Amino acid sequence: MKTLSDSDLTETGLPLERHKGRILLIACGALAREILDLKAANGWTHLDLTCLPAKLHLYPEKITQAVIDTVTLHREKYDEFFVVYADCGTGGLLDAACQKLGVQMIAGPHCYSFFEGNDRFSATSETEITTFYLTDFLVRQFNSFIIKPMGLDKHPELRDMYFGNYEKLVYQAQTDDPDLTEKAKACAATLGLTFERRFTGYGDLENALKTL
């Protein structure tokens, strides 16, 4: 496999290289590194992976159809599919589509929840309503997913309009990377928020994949 590029994962995703396993994981490009690390660490050779472009998170209304198209494309090759998207802003449409297709998907409202652990995230969500979350991928792609789409690169004065009701940035760290932690601190400073680092590891992502 060629070296993973965050820009490629954002723009084009990760194509299926070859059919080897019996279960195809259909995931967001923002989760590619984590899933590949888990596959390698656990020897999950029965799982193949393809990722849709991470930039679909900027257009959540497109996620459901993209997943349907991917299942349809590979239907004859695989015994099972597992969709590694939470609801992710689809308003329940992705879950309904997966049920209609007869495929499973990971539980949770979004990746911040399943990285934290869905039960824990649900228990603390009401007390963290003013919290803004970043994962490893989003720290690396902060400009592409936060600054540029919101126009803050050209109009930094809009920052307080977008983030004035937030108080804290929580960096959910999947890995122990001091450089990423420093970048996350810089992200918090850019947004005018206090900073907290939480090492979540892979959370319920790992737990879900273990069951397959």
Annotated CATH architecture of the largest domain: 3-Layer(aba) Sandwich
Estimated radius of gyration: 17 Å
Q: What global shape is seen?
A: globular
User: How many domains, in number, for the residues?
Assistant: 2
Structure report:
The chain has a 4-stranded parallel sheet with strand order 2-1-3-4, with helices on both faces. Strands 5-6-7 form a 3-stranded parallel sheet. The protein is globular. Strand 3, helix 4 and strand 4 form a beta-alpha-beta unit. Helix content is 42%, strand content 17%. With 212 residues, the chain is α/β, with parallel strands linked by helices. The longest helix is centred in the C-terminal third of the chain and has 14 residues. The chain has 2 domains: 101 residues, Rossmann fold (3-Layer(aba) Sandwich); 78 residues, no CATH class. Helix 3 runs parallel beside helix 4.
Set down the secondary structure blueprint:
Elements: H1 6-11, E1 23-28, H2 32-42, E2 47-52, H3 63-74, E3 80-84, H4 93-101, E4 104-105, H5 111-116, H6 118-124, E5 131-135, H7 136-140, H8 142-147, H9 159-163, E6 168-173, H10 178-191, E7 194-199, H11 203-210
Parallel strand pairs: 1-2, 1-3, 3-4, 5-6, 6-7
Helix pairs in contact: 3-4
